[in-house]
Amino acid sequence: MKHLLIPALLFSSVCGAQTTNPAKYVKPIIGTQRMGHTYPGATVPFGMVQLSPDTDTISYEQNGKYNPDVYKYCAGYQYDDKTIVGFSHTHFSGTGHSDLGDFLIMPTVGDLKLNPGTADKPRSGFRSAFSHANEVAEADYYKVKLDDYNITAELTATNRVGVHQYTFPKSDNAHIILDLMSGIYNYEDKNVWTFVRVENDTLITGYRQTNGWARTRTVYFAMTFSKPFIRYGNQNFSKRQVYRGFWGKFNQSKNFPEMAGKQLRAYFDFNTAEGEKIKIKFALSPVSTEGALANLRAEAPGWDFDKIRQQGQALWNKELSKVSIEADEEEKVNFYTSMYHAFITPTVYMDADGSYKGLDQRNHKATGFTNYTTFSLWDTYRALHPLFNILQPKRNSDMVQSMLAHYDQSLLHMLPVWSHYANDNWCMSGYHSVAVIADAVVKGNANFDTRKALNACVTTARNKSYEGIGEYIATGYIPAEKIGTSASTTLEYAYDDWAIAQMAKKLGRPDIYNEFIKRSTNYRNVFDPSVGFMRARMANGTFKDKFDPLSTANQGFIEGNSWNFSFFVPQDPADLIKLMGGNNRFVEHLDSLFTMELPDKYFEETEDITRDGIIGNYVHGNEPSHHVAYLYNWTNQPWKTQERIRMILKKQYHTGPDGLGGNDDCGQMSAWYIFSTLGFYPVAPASDEYAIGSPAINKATLKLENGKTFVIDVQNQSEKNVYVQKIELNGKVLPSLFLKHDAIMKGGKLVFYMGDKPVK
């Protein structure tokens, strides 16, 4: 697998000094990720626009089948590529599947070319060579030289507007190409329709409708130039249509103000002086071109590129400053890069006036909350949303309201599973929106209708038509004949049911609590005591044959093998320990996960995992194992959690090339890093407790939205001193290796005393 760019942010200050203004110290490190699928580019925190370079136009299909090479382009950018095809306005951060890549813009000079060319024959199209030596990536800023055209490209963004600045050479033949065909995970029929309207010689409006991961997605735009163009045109690359109406009366390819079709590329021509800058403001809307224009006027009324960049970086500085740390230089790079990634998604999905398109494809207005999209919930319920309940409680509450709006608009009466752009793409398993909602309720961050929220969770969990829920309710597990992920989905449903039970308990609903706390024990029904592992089970009650606990193929698990998933009972580790034979046998089993050798054959065909993302058989690059190292806290050897956490931090997160040991998955990998570096982790979201680990910084100050400050002071921390000797909370010894959420939110001081030997 080729490496992918990680826009690592270097926060350079005196080693060990507390970082109080992170954005002030941002310097670019263009590194790579093993499998990170993170884009470099311009976006503000949680912004609708993610403006970034795309380095190729690989098709999702090849000869009628899935093209595995497309996986490298989940975020549009591949670090090893030598050319850039343009800059598009929407991207996913760290996902293992993809969509988006809307409205690609490419500046060129010389002969007009309206195809991108290919990587092996770049001069055959409009793509350009580039060098990492001439590339800069910062928070809300990207810069690169397009070598073939001697054009310097610079990008920045507001929430809803991408801002381009292109410095041209002298030319009587300069072009700005607007590619409405290009997209990520693209294929021939993905574009349903595109439309462009040339309003005048500086203003363009239009929309694009696609059928991809989101099957009914429409995005509107308004595009304005800082300088009038002298001519324009387009080429329609669609197959010949049987019926084309009577538009043949016009020459639609040149200087015709309406362009429509499935496969369009437009161009706008200019004369440029040496060093002349042409700027573009490109606003998005989920509702209409009128909405895009209003967004443009509200957020980017002028043409001062540097001012917009400074405002965007000030927004990043505000968010990143919510945690100030004292640590060595490398740890600062890792920590604030993780903060940056964690605050990219979910993304705002509404116009400046609150208008948005709902799941019902009707226009709505968010009243009293910000509407969000990009909910990769199978990943982010584990640590990202719990992190938001500490650092972004208002946003997280709005995200829950966005999920409830999704539920209201759903004819299936379901909360979101994996939603983006007024669609649910139904990716992955479980119904983990209930865990996000329950976590907010249990932790007292419920600025929404909790009665309605509980009803939405219960209705979702009782939907017998969805992915084996009917069988799960009837038999206590999902039969292997029903779905290919029967064992892991049973485990995930059991956890989600526990989360619902905790919310019901908090809200005084014993009837619902009793129903779902009983369902939450269904994990026992897929545990096979004869082998000591979780295992897919047949409808007749027998366990599926040909069992291999190391294999991910045809074993009933998703993105993991039985070895890893057998530890997925975060709601009741104590009971899991009993199932597995008691403390000693459980510890041995857990030890072996980290120390055994996983043969290559078990992951060499898996596109989202490489050897670099694995420690023994522990697969950090896939989320089901993220809580596992903390399970020692429920045994008589909790110090092993401390040494394992520090080992994972060191091996899976780096500042330069190969900076991340797996897909960031919309911030989940980064949220794990932030929690673990601070010294605690939410093993079971919807609990009010965090499990203690081993902090990897000297000091951290959390500035909370409620005005309180929570300080984490780590005495004698070093690479060798990874073992917790004692913990004090506000001057009193913490009696266990668990920290209450309320203790953080009330403010105060947590002091770790570290040493080089475990306290047994």
What does this molecule look like?
The protein has 760 residues and is an alpha+beta fold. The chain has a domain at 4-317: Distorted Sandwich (Beta-galactosidase, Chain A, domain 5), CATH 2.70.98.10. The chain has 17 helices and 40 strands. It has a nine-stranded antiparallel beta sheet. Helix 5 crosses helix 6 (393-409). The longest helix has 21 residues, at 486-506. The relative contact order is 0.10. Residues 1-19 and 24-35 have low confidence and may be disordered.
- Give the class from helix and strand content and strand pairing: alpha+beta
The coarse overall form would be globular
Kindly report how far apart the N and C termini lie.
42 Å
- CATH topology name of one domain, in short, is Beta-galactosidase, Chain A, domain 5
Question: Helical segment tally?
Answer: 17
Summed over residues and divided by their number, the pLDDT gives a mean of 93
How much of the residues is beta strand, in percent? 15-25%
In terms of quaternary structure, the protein is: single chain
The low-confidence runs, each spanning 5 or more residues with pLDDT under 50, are 1-19, 24-35
- The residue fraction in helices comes out at 10-25%
The level-1 CATH class of one domain: Mainly Beta
> Which strand order spans the largest sheet, edge to edge or round the barrel?
10-11-12-13-21-17-16-15-19
Number of strands: 40
Largest sheet: 9 strands, antiparallel
CATH A-level architecture of one domain = Distorted Sandwich
Radius of gyration: 26 Å
